[in-house]
Amino acid sequence: MSEAFYVRVGKVEERKVTFQCLTGFAGGLTDYANTRSFALMLLLDAKERAGDTRYLVRSAPPAVADAHLALAEKAANAPSSLHKDAGNANVFEAKWHARHTPRFVERTSVLERYNDVGEEKLRETFEEISPLQDQGRWLFLEAAWVRMHRFDLAVEVTDSKYLEHLAEGHLFATTAFDVWLESRPLPP
Fold this sequence. Notes:
By secondary structure, the protein is of the alpha+beta class. The protein is 38% helix and 21% strand. The protein has a 5-stranded antiparallel beta sheet.
């Protein structure tokens, strides 16, 4: 699994959403991200990566899989002012984010980090739960949500229309990261 994060859409209210983020397993096991560029990538990926949800729920009980697939379909088919206004977003380029992210994302904050016990302990936990992958990705991810590092990210957008495509409870994977670090000058 090479996703940077696995994300559940939490509470959506007015101009705010909480993303529940499980740190992926390709990099540091305590990695987290909190920039506005990361948040924008999550907002975009909630719709763009909705089709991948079917791979995440393959071994889930049928009712659970069906519920997640319905949420993914809802997100995939929802109108999205964000996607319309972002156009052909070059989300992997810091300069693009410097120009466009402030139009969409007002602020972010990490609400809480869970299981932040260090790389060594998390590596041991990862080794303990890894055999679950043989029984299916869903079982492994469910164990990871309980035992591995994760965090809640609050995101406030500039206009509530930029959240219209989100479905509470929707699960998706992402390669999002902190592309634009606002405190650092951009390269020429």
